[in-house]
D-2-hydroxyacid dehydrogenase family protein (Janthinobacterium tructae), 337 residues
Amino acid sequence: MKIAILDDYQDAVRGLDCFPLLDGHEVKVFSNTARGLGQLAIRLAPFDVLVLIRERSSFNRALLSKLPNLKLISQTGKVSGHIDVASATELGIAIAEGIGSPTAPAELTWALIMAAQRKIVPYAQHLQEGLWQTSSIEPARNTLGTVLKGRTLAIWGYGKIGQLIAGYGRAFGMTILVWGSEASRAAAVAAGDTAAVSRAAFFEQADVLSLHLRLSETTRGLVTAEDLARMKPNSLFVNTSRAELVAEGALEAALQQGRPGAAALDVFTDEPLPPGAPLLLLPNVLATPHLGYVERDSYELYFRYALQNIVDFAQHQCTRLLNPEVLQHARQAPQER
């Protein structure tokens, strides 16, 4: 089969131990991102199988309908709203899912918290320039970092990643405050953490606030300007989940107004983030290029399942299809697309 692996920005997949699973197939790895329906359709039209790295590319009905040879989309991890599953099924395109791990994104979140609280990046950058113990060349911003012990770590979302973050916070002597669904708050209390008495109190009491929610129509824009305005002037807002969880423009405005005092971000509404993006121009923002899952062990896990799903699909033995009904649909009407 003709297989395309999309958006491998670092051309890393060919070096994975699992890549030989595709021996015998014609494989093309794209390390740059195509923009626009027409460009993507031309690029991807020849392929039987597409391998998607998380949500780096989206597939709506308009695009799927222009891919006449496509039989399978093999997703690294789970599908998360970036594929029109109903349209894919109607068009006879199978979708295979894999699994992921919370470890790498949780560790990246904690690394961002530590780096932001102790101002590690600006200190290191200024040291390269010959400036000793300088966090900013602006006197008003040349301030000290702070420890985490004794402070409040507020976590919105107490799933696998949120629970890991809570464990890290406890190990550092932090008080854990949780907001989210009733089930999340109950789980937090059962684990010995504290459920916030209200959404307002959650934002008001946070020294460090970290989001760990899935993006859906109910969570899009969930964090509002009013929420952010309740945060302390010296607090840190952390988002390694999805940028769209925050109302459009609310975080930029809040940071300029000083509540919260800083942000550590790994996700953005436009990725790859273009040079000169407003968030990159703010001195109180620590930003990384969506590295949450971009790590060797995670890639091996994600791609081992994604590539094995292709092998199994070719042998009519794939058990990880999100839409298994498509197999019967495709057999009955292979010419409809």
Remarks:
- The first helix runs from residue 37 to 44.
- The chain has two domains: 2-98+296-331, 102-287.
